[in-house]
Amino acid sequence: MAGKFIHKRFSDININDPFFDSLKRDYPGSATSTEFTKWFAKKAAEGKEALVFEDEQGVGAFVNLKPGESEEIKLSNGRVLPYDSRLKITTIKIDERFQHQRIGEGALGLTLWDWRDQGVNEIYVTAFEKHASLIFLLEKYGFNYVGDNLNGERVYIKDRRDLDFSDPCKAFPFIDGRMDHAGCLAINMEYHDTMFAYSELANTLQEHVDINVANGLKKVYIGSPYSLAFKAGDPVLIYRKYTGDDGRPGYKSVITSYCIATRVERIKMQGQFLHSFDEFLHFVGNKSVYSEFKLKNQYDNEKNLTVIELLYCGYFGAGNNVNWRWLKDNGLWPGTHPMNFRYTRSQFEKILREGNVDVDNVIID
Fold first, then answer.
1. Which helix (H) or strand (E) is 361 found in, with range?
2. Nearest partner of 65 among 110, 11, 98, 14, judged by Cα
3. pLDDT (tens digit per residue) in 275-295
4. Which end of the chain is more exposed for a tag (fewer CB within 10 A), N or C?
5. What does the pLDDT look like over 231-275, one tens digit per residue?
């Protein structure tokens, strides 16, 4: 399986891959493959790119965006959505062989990151009612149904001016401006690089394993803390702990990413079981780097055991990660264990800015 999505030129994508057959059939205004093929060829001639996920069988996912521009949307009931700055997802398709592998969640996440970075007010997509799994995903991540267009497709819109912060998924990839503190999690580099596949590092060979946890936006951390400085709903910084035996760990251990804690479940406390093993497995799902054998070992032997579900809201990127030395020198390493750190909003924002994040475009007041 391919490691992650890449941006790929249309001219380098095999349009004859069976993956595109249904797109050719469903393309507006065409009962054959002709119109879709013409559109595809035009994009190739223009040097355009799409977001593509491939494996040894060929194309597995495809997303194309139309750059944000001011336009109106006409609905079949006569309603017209007035001109506004909107990014359109013109095409989004995930192959059925990736069902339950969280590829769709990853594709939508990358698209919403792009929308955030473009700074336009709205993002929208159209989908036929038969595409139930796509519609479920859109609604989960905050798209609202506004009516059908003139082609009989359902129109879904997400507006950064009207975000539902009661659910971090619906607000993704933005952070609620009412936050007043943030936590931190230290994750060994060999696990970090699978969980947070887009949190790349400059001049560092990252370990990476291609499993479900790398694909989706939801991640699960499993640890043995006695106490935590954050709760569900709080932002959490992700600290990649360098565990190699070469180099200078003070410069190789870095904060790479920021998340929202969406669930915190105590499984064991002081040796007492609070949930059954089956419940533990259910909480973890396919969002963890651990095998079931490893999970059983933790369940049986750890004195304290906690499951922390995280929503992967953003990353700093190669060259922007914030190392331990900078944190220490700037009074932002307030103890010995990151899990006990409780950053104020101003401290959290300072770390984001050091990671070259546009804070005003991420935290929405």
1. none
2. 110
3. 999 999 999 988 888 889 999
4. C
5. 999 999 999 999 887 767 788 999 999 999 999 999 999 999 999
Place of tokens 């539902």: 164
Phi, psi of 130 (to 5 degrees): -70, -15
Distances in Å between the Cα of 335 and the Cα atoms of 52, 98, 231, 245 are 43, 43, 19, 23
Residues 147-197: tens digit of each pLDDT: 999 989 999 999 999 999 999 999 999 999 999 999 999 999 888 888 887
d(CA 46, CA 36): 15
Residue bearing tokens 């946890």: 213
What is the distance between the alpha carbons of residues 28 and 330, in angstroms, rounded to a whole number? 56
What residue type is assigned to position 8 of the chain? Answer: K
| CA-to-CA separations, 142 to 71, 74, 80, 153, in angstroms, rounded | 21, 21, 21, 18
Question: CB neighbours (10 Å) of residue 102?
Answer: 21
User: Which two three-digit tokens encode residue 131?
Assistant: 């595409």
> How long is the chain?
365
Cα 287 to Cα 26, 95, 142, 236: the distances in Å are: 33, 20, 21, 17
**Tokens 């999690």, residue located:** 185
| Segment holding 103, helix H or strand E | helix 103-118
Residues 6+ apart with CB under 8 A from 71: 83, 84, 86
Report DSSP letters for 257-319, one per residue: EEEEEEEEEEEEETTEESS-HHHHHHHHTT--SS-HHHHHHHHHH-SSEEEEEEEEEEE--TT
- The band of 209, judged by pLDDT with boundaries at 50, 70 and 90, is very low
